[in-house]
Amino acid sequence: MEDEYVDAATALIRRITTKIGIPDDVRIEATRLFITVFARHNLNQGSNTARSCACIMVAAKNTEDVQKMACLLTTMPKITEEFKDRMEEVVRFCANDSTELTSDHFMSRLQSLLQISDDVTSAATMIARRAVFRIPISVPAAAVFMASQVSSEKRSMKQVADVLRISEATVKEAYGDIYAHAARLFPEEHMSSEPLDSLPSP
């Protein structure tokens, strides 16, 4: 039975990536992630579509592919909550498995979909690189939120969470961890429009 679900998911990943024009290397990596992360699960529970979409989103390396997936997901509201959970599961696996998945992997999609400037993105990137004590997906989310709060381009935790399809609680938890280290995490040359002590408390 497990093999049947894996085969079905492999076919589903192929259909999705073909439909929205995502390249084969992303499809192959998404399939590998699905088999590695979910093959031991009870696959007759939950949504294979949510699992497959999560694997494709993590495997996507450029902003264009991420945007294609984001647009597709807006047409599938029934899997939104499970998709967020599966995204976190895949990313946590990648982090623990020493897969080359870093904060930078997520920064381009945050900049593009939140429409923030290079200056805020640069500050957020440095914050995320220095905040090595969090899992990759929560680092850039919290970093973008933090950098935006001392700029004229403020974004809410919900906005940031929605872009990465993670829970607002995940962003809040990560922000709580890095908040006390703000002075060390911000790049020295960064010129914020507001002082760091104006950052909202966790």
TrEMBL record:
GO terms for cellular component: nucleus; transcription preinitiation complex. Pfam families: TFIIB (PF00382). Keywords: Transcription, Transcription regulation. The lineage of its organism: Eukaryota, Metazoa, Ecdysozoa, Nematoda, Chromadorea. Transmembrane segments: none annotated. It comes from the Eukaryota. One of its GO terms (biological process) is transcription preinitiation complex assembly. GO terms for molecular function: TBP-class protein binding. Residues 103-179 form the Transcription factor TFIIB cyclin-like domain. It comes from Caenorhabditis japonica. InterPro entries: Cyclin-like_sf (IPR036915), TFIIB (IPR000812), TFIIB_cyclin (IPR013150). This is TFIIB domain-containing protein.
